[in-house]
Design goal:
mainly alpha, about 80% helix
């Protein structure tokens, strides 16, 4: 009787352990899939960040700023005769 009870308990322990292994492997695969998706998203964001930095450098170029100021805002360099020095 005791041997049968011990065998049943051992069988249940093995079954519980096997179920835990299945759950752990599924969780591991799910987390790996999420990790791969996040790595791909990080790579896409890094590419976009590089594009934005390049765009910012283009917009902040002094010759571009001068061109926009002249064309769109009607600004110009002042003549030396128009300049006044304040004491």
């Amino acid at each position: 009787m005791v041997a049968l009870l011990m065998t049943a308990l051992l069988g249940l322990s093995v079954l519980g352990s096997a179920l835990f292994v299945v759950v752990a492997r599924h969780d591991s695969r799910t987390r790996f899939t999420v990790l791969e998706r996040l790595v791909a998203e990080r790579d896409e964001l890094n590419i976009e960040w590089g594009r934005l930095q390049l765009e910012q450098a283009t917009w902040a170029d002094p010759s571009r700023i001068e061109q926009v100021a002249t064309r769109d805002l009607g600004m110009r360099f002042s003549d030396p005769a128009e300049r006044r020095v304040l004491p």
